[in-house]
Amino acid sequence: MRAMRNVQDMRTRSEDRLEELLRQKKRQTWMIVIAIVAITAWSAWETDFSFVDVFTGVEEIFRFIFIDFLPPDFSRFNQLIGPALDTIYISFVAMVVGALLSMVLAFFAAATTSPFRSVQVAVRALCSVLRNIPTLIWGILLVAAYGLGTLVGTLALIITAIGTLTRAYAEILEEIDIGQVEALKATGASYTQILGQAVFPQFMPGFIGWSLYKLELNVRASTLIGMVGGGGLGFAIQKGLKLFQFKEVSLAIIMVMVLVLMTEFITSKLRERII
After folding, report:
1. What pTM, to 2 d.p., does this model score?
2. Which of 58, 54, 77 lies closest to 66 in space, CA to CA?
3. pLDDT tens for residues 38-57?
């Protein structure tokens, strides 16, 4: 009987403890919900956000899109072919140069291939800075140094590519099978032989995949860079907005969308065949 009472007491205590935990979890959930609602309301108040203003502006938005913005002025297509090609050139060159430089830096940023811990930390810190400064800011800084033109757009995309791809490549290198490397070391293979037979075969699929993905990002980002003077379709869009040539801007935006979709389609096919 005493054993049964002990079992019942333990069961009762367990049930009480479980109920207490459920009550605590419920209180925490309500506190989180209240905090989110309070922060949202406070932020909306500070930014003068109002659903009334949103709905009253819908009519003006539709008027601008369907009267001023559409239909596109296809007579300006020939004038936009050059900027469209510049967008492709900028994106591709920035991808190739950025990928090659990032590949070299990745060997110093990866824990498995970096010669010194201090070098690894320094390279990762540099890439973090390059990555966290928006591409648009790099474009503005470079316009001040080099003036308007496609060189600015290319350099801005290369800088951000180094920040992004170096980290991605370094993580790929840190995830390779070290067993293959150790096996080649045991046979007396040289450093270059180890790289060629154990490291690069595992590294290349990720290298190609990330490089192609960066090409897709470059096509999108080059439009923003162009709007601050980096050339390409972005520059044509900015010029059209300043001159109130909205139908030409509409055509340029459609061309950007087509370029993005074509790039995604081509890169996906390349990944299927190469990787």
Report:
1. 0.74
2. 58
3. 898 888 788 877 777 777 76
